[in-house]
Amino acid sequence: MGVMQIDQEAPVLHCDEVDSTNTHLARIVLGEGSTAPSGIALWASRQNKGRGRDGRAWLSSDEALTFSLMVEASESELEWLTALAGLALLRTILAAGLDATASGEDALSLKWPNDLLINGRKAAGILCEHLDTSVDTHRVIVGIGLNIGALPLEVRDFAASFDTSMSSEERELFIRELRINLQRLFTLPGAPESWREEYSSYMRIFGTQCPLHLPGGIRFTATPISIDEHAHLICRSTEGEILTVTTGEISPTPLVEGHLS
């Protein structure tokens, strides 16, 4: 297993407005003559074409923190990247004290493969997009949208937000701390078992029957029971069959078009 190296001195760029932080950072990284280091990040005060998985739109207020960073990962690290980005985000939220605005014991949780929830409602989403591959590494853009402050009217029925505000300086510091946490996770002793244990500890949905949505429009009901060493979801079907889900999503509440899932 390779060990991801993130340049903690890489720049954290800011734009007043972009179409999508993932798209804009990809342009910079792939630009002619670019020597962008692993860890380069970009946040925007406003996204006008934010997007999520499967081409769905990401709707967020101007108070939200939307940012992306580019990392270089080995093949074995790549399969865990989305999950570890979620763990790094959760660690950073806890360290920043943002969890104090989430009411209830165990209010924060992770939903495989790419969401962070407050009391079962979506508060953040992660979108990893592959850029290119060299001899032994993959360059990937990791996009994160974190709901802060007021929510757009369209998503208030199913989303959640951290009841706080963040200055520009606090936003940059948050991104830098997340980079540190991501690096720490990739160098955590005992991986991937240590990753699996920590990620599983925040999966409150284990043992709960819920809809699963797979590529190609396949939908069925199953009970998530664990995460395996490849960050795949292990489920039990309603007939008792044990299934390994490599790609797709859990939907404890109906998917709503127009929001990252």
Automatic annotation (TrEMBL):
Its EC number is 6.3.4.15. The gene is birA. InterPro entries: aa-tRNA-synth_II/BPL/LPL, Biotin_CoA_COase_ligase, BPL_LPL_catalytic. The keyword Amino-acid biosynthesis does not apply. One of its GO terms (molecular function) is biotin--[biotin carboxyl-carrier protein] ligase activity. Pfam families: BPL_LplA_LipB. The keyword Kinase does not apply. Residues 13-207 form the BPL/LPL catalytic domain. This is Bifunctional ligase/repressor BirA. It comes from Schaalia odontolytica. It is an enzyme of class 6 (ligase). Keywords: Ligase. One of its GO terms (cellular component) is cytoplasm.
